[in-house]
Design a protein that fits this description.
Blueprint lengths: L7 H31 L25 H9 L3 H29 L3 H19 L2
Length: 128
């Protein structure tokens, strides 16, 4: 599993700290890209006068491949969405690390509870 010299609590706290920090930096770069592309135009990428949900016709907000493609193409929406995606994935990674920590400690009750929580997260993420 994990090397014995790793302090799991320190690893979990650093995972959260780095995950949130990296997601903020990525989203901030997306905001800067947005200002560079649309700084003087009032409704460049979106018309903010009326709220509307992203639809399947616009997969740039809903498709993982489109979000990562936008990130690689340096589009403002791609970078901002990637930052949000990283922010969402950070606590999920913490749950995964916690599960392995409980298994390593042979704390089967907490390992089972963490596995159930992880299964709920995954099932809700994959449901349509």
């Amino acid at each position: 599993m994990l090397p014995k010299h790793i302090d799991m609590q320190l690893l979990l706290s650093r995972t959260l700290r780095w995950g949130v920090g990296i997601s903020c930096v990525v989203a901030f770069v997306g905001g800067l890209l947005y200002l560079l592309h649309c700084g003087n135009e009032p409704f460049c990428l979106a018309d903010y006068r009326q709220f509307s949900y992203a639809t399947a016709a616009d997969p740039s907000y809903t498709s993982l491949s489109a979000i990562l493609g936008g990130f690689l193409d340096f589009t403002p929406v791609g970078w901002i969405q990637t930052g949000v995606l990283l922010l969402i994935l950070t606590p999920i990674l913490r749950v995964v690390l916690s599960f392995f920590s409980f298994v390593e400690e042979r704390d089967w009750l907490y390992a089972a509870i963490t596995a159930v929580v992880l299964a709920v997260i995954i099932s809700n993420s994959l449901s349509l």
